[in-house]
From TrEMBL:
NrS-1 polymerase-like helicase domain location: 540-648
Organism of provenance: Pseudothauera nasutitermitis
Entry protein name: DNA primase
InterPro entries linked: NrS-1_pol-like_helicase, P-loop_NTPase, TOPRIM_DnaG/twinkle, TOPRIM_dom
Domain of life: Bacteria
Annotated Toprim domain residues: 225-360
Length: 840
């Protein structure tokens, strides 16, 4: 054993290193008294002196940030030769390099763990710390249920701790890399651990490199950046001024953070938001009396030197000196009350957040602006104070979207998805939209961070098929969802006049109550079930001035950015970007009379189709799930074309005259007083009963009229024929196809419509109305003809709510050619009479 073994043990133990026995020949990490991490280290080597004695030489220390606290082992009353001294110096230098390399490796490993954990945290949430401090969540995240962190306990074993509900604050460098996390524990979820630790903050993971690392609030600095110790102080200052703030996490890190910021932003002045640590407790363990640091260097209770200083101000002054910065300390209006609060009640008022809580943000802003003016800096209003976290007040915003720069690799990895095969197209998970890769580069504060993202194996990829608008959240194909949540906020209030207006619009129908009830539920269902595609549409038409637009534009506003009012030009535009990401469309006069049949099929697909194809600029056309529900408004009597068996449309013809008096002005006043949010709330909570998206709309008199107006000439002719409405031409007969068409063409000329070609007439009536056709022989008094094309014309007899179809029947005593011949001759004669005696 080395002759100085016990002496070396004493030297190591004197600085607090904890070990069972000394390890010789390699760098060894160990714990330190009062510390949970292995901050201590030593590196020992055995050499032989000239006299033959074996001794231990080497170095030791304790890591604090980037300082390893290096000390040499003292050889008391020992003499080394010059060669031994030189060898020892070389070995100690090598040991220092190895210790620094090991420390850096540990910091790198801690950074990797921190970035992974940061990616697991949620960007939305609440925390009692934020409520208690009266500040917002700026660039922080929240630990969801099940979040756990590991640490090495005093027994050397790895333990896991549940930190669900904790606030996660990233500790980053100027390139945005996350090196560690500060977890502010929730008093609700972690009360026991807070009590055991005696604090509510934990730095994680073990081995993190905190020196020069900070949390950034705000954008790129233009003239000044503020540096604060704690998050609450930084958040108060940022909220008051809108200026960028760096949180250094403790006073000893202020200088390191300032140096890092100064290196990156050389022309920016750095101001230090000092904690005024004017109050402390006596350092003597037997005393611990409360005292005011500036009163005396000795404790008023025990008379000993209390050993305290105003750490916050001293550290800020020192840091400011190194970067030509300036110090701002909070000033409290009643210094005597502040002093008494500490001495009598143990309540410290020391930092800018305390000033915020006591005096308000206006005072914080005023004092900071005074300080800036004192060092010659302009106090122009901040460009924009920090916005509340996304999600408060709905998934979107009625105001402009705030686009903030990205500072960290972890945010790039989490936020952006490269769309493979589409060139430089990226999906932004925060803004829920496709952007260009160049936009991501411009948004990133540091070129180094952007380069690390492009080279990272962890960056996300998706196909264009995985980009979609899915308010339901049930489409397994959609991993990049452009739906950002419901964009407006319901609020209980008065919407009685809006509902009265809707009732008035429906009141002209004979079944007005049924229509009003169905329409209200049709409006409510997709609000209660976001993304629900109704299997029907609504048509409201009538004279101007009845309030159609007023009510349904209120509905459109409930949908925020997902609602849209369109006109004919939107429908005609082949680049139909207006369809992208829509839940509700209000179509005003979208069809001119001459265009009815031209756009009928396109509108039908919009109402019933599962998919729409969006064709934006700079991006290839892509399919999107159809979630659009549509209401048509028109002053025309024929706003849309309906099939005679239509089951998709509710049609309402509004009353002839507008409401009397100042009714519409009162509706506008209700809207201005919050009526739309109240209508939103009413629809959101409306009982739907058994109503669902496939519930068929009720038949109305207006719909019957519209169907009749929409009939094409073939259907209109068929109805007139089988119901016996063509003079002299009786149904329940058989006609040659050529004779049948001649009757149809003449009938069309009489009512002023264009006749369809004969093949279309026969095919339409056969497929749509079930007319029987065939090729048959027929006989007249001279000979048997054919086979020729014939049409079987039934008779329709309405009664009891149903229609009885009666087909022509051959008498048993007549052969078929004879029977058909007699009917053909009779039909020809009837048509001849109908035409006024002309030859068929």
């Amino acid at each position: 054993m080395a002759s100085n073994y016990d002496d070396v043990v004493c030297q190591l133990e004197s600085v607090g290193l904890i070990f069972d026995s000394l390890v010789v020949g390699k760098l060894t990490r160990c714990k330190v008294e009062g510390e949970g991490e292995k901050r201590g280290w030593y590196s020992l080597h055995e050499i032989t002196l000239d006299g033959g004695d074996q001794v231990l030489v080497g170095s030791y220390g304790i890591w604090y940030g980037d300082d390893n606290g290096h000390r040499k082992i003292e050889l008391r009353r020992r003499t080394l030769t010059d060669e031994q001294k030189a060898a020892l110096r070389a070995r100690l230098k090598e040991d220092r390099k190895r210790a620094e390399g090991l420390r850096m490796a540990q910091a790198e490993a801690a950074s990797a763990k921190a970035e992974r954990k940061w990616g697991e945290l949620s960007s939305g949430g609440e925390h009692d710390y934020l409520t208690r401090k009266g500040v917002g969540a700026h660039g922080v995240r929240f630990a969801p249920e099940g979040t756990r962190i590991d640490f090495e306990a005093a027994d050397g074993k790895i333990h896991e701790v549940d930190v669900a509900g904790a606030l996660g604050v990233p500790m980053c460098d100027t390139a945005g890399r996350v090196w560690g996390l500060q977890f502010i524990l929730s008093r609700e979820h972690s009360a026991e651990r807070i009590q055991r630790l005696g604090r509510d903050k934990e730095y994680w993971p073990q081995g993190l490199d905190k020196i020069g690392k900070f949390h950034w609030l705000g954008g790129v600095p233009e003239t000044v950046v503020l540096v604060a110790e704690g998050y609450a102080t930084g958040a108060s200052a940022h909220a008051a001024t809108g200026l960028p703030v760096a949180v250094s996490f403790d006073a000893n890190n202020l200088g390191h953070v300032a140096q890092a910021i100064h290196k990156k932003y050389k022309r920016v002045r750095i101001g230090f938001l000092a904690d005024d640590d004017a109050f402390a407790k006596c350092r003597e363990r037997s005393c611990q009396a409360r005292l005011v640091v500036a009163d005396s260097p000795s404790c008023p209770a025990c008379g000993q030197m209390h050993g305290r200083q105003n750490t916050g101000v001293v550290a800020a002054d020192t840091a400011a000196l190194a970067v030509n910065g300036f110090v701002l300390a909070p000033r409290f209006a009643d210094e005597a009350a502040r002093r008494a609060a500490w001495l009598d009640h143990g309540q410290k008022l020391t930092d800018w957040n305390d000033l915020h809580a006591r005096a308000g943000l206006a005072v914080v802003r005023s004092q900071i602006e005074d300080g800036l003016a004192g060092v010659g800096l302009a106090t122009a209003p901040a460009r924009r104070a920090a916005a509340p976290p996304r999600g408060e007040g709905g998934g979107g915003s009625a105001g402009p979207v705030e686009i903030r720069p990205v500072s960290s690799l972890s945010e790039l990895l989490e936020r952006f998805v490269i769309i493979y095969g589409e060139g430089d197209v990226v999906f932004d998970r925060e803004l829920h939209k496709l952007v260009k890769l160049k936009d991501v580069q411009n948004l990133t504060l540091s070129r180094e961070v952007y380069a690390r993202w492009t080279e990272s194996a962890d960056k996300q990829f998706a196909m264009l098929d995985n980009v979609g608008f899915d308010p339901t959240g049930r489409d397994t194909m959609v991993s990049c969802n452009v739906y950002a949540g419901w964009p407006t906020v319901p609020k209980a209030g008065s919407c009685e006049l809006l509902l009265e207006l809707l009732w008035y619009l429906c009141s002209g129908e004979r079944n007005a109550e049924e229509v009003y009830d169905w329409l209200l539920k049709w409006l409510a269902y997709p609000i209660q079930h976001p993304g629900a595609k109704m299997a029907s549409a609504v048509v409201i038409h009538g004279k101007q001035g009845t309030g159609k637009t007023m009510f349904f534009k209120a509905i459109t506003r409930i949908y925020g950015t997902y609602g849209l009012t369109i006109n004919q030009s939107a429908v005609d535009n082949p680049r139909n970007t207006w369809l992208a990401s829509r839940l509700y469309v209000l179509a005003e006069e979208v069809v001119a009379r001459k265009e009815l049949h031209h756009v009928k099929n396109a509108l039908k697909d919009l109402i019933t189709g599962d998919t729409v194809y969006v064709d934006p600029k700079f991006v290839n056309p892509y399919p999107e799930r159809n979630h659009v529900n549509i209401t048509f408004l028109s002053n025309e009597t024929l706003p849309v074309i309906l099939e005679d068996d239509d089951r998709r449309h509710l049609v309402v013809w509004t009353p002839e005259a507008p409401q009397s008096g100042n009714f519409y002005r009162m509706v506008e006043e209700e809207i201005e007083a919050g009526g739309i949010a109240a209508l939103h709330d009413h629809l959101l909570n409306l009982p739907l009963g058994d109503f669902h998206k496939h519930t068929k709309p009720p038949m109305t008199r207006s719909k019957e009229d519209l169907i009749d107006l929409s009939l094409d000439s073939t259907t209109r002719f068929w109805r007139a024929l089988v119901q016996g409405e063509i003079e002299g031409v009786r149904p329940k007969t058989i006609a040659l196809s050529t004779d049948f068409y001649k009757l149809y063409a003449y009938w069309c000329s009489q009512i002023g419509v264009h006749a369809a070609p004969m093949p279309k007439l026969i095919d339409t009536l056969k497929k749509k109305h079930g007319m029987k056709v065939g090729r048959k022989r027929w006989s007249d008094q001279y000979k048997t003809h054919g086979p020729h094309g014939v049409c079987m014309i039934p008779e329709h007899q309405p009664g009891g709510g149903t229609v009885t179809v009666i087909e022509p029947e051959r008498p048993p005593d007549l052969q078929e050619p004879v029977w058909i011949g007699r009917l053909v001759e009779a039909f020809r004669a009837a048509v001849r009479d109908y035409k006024g005696g002309g030859h068929v």
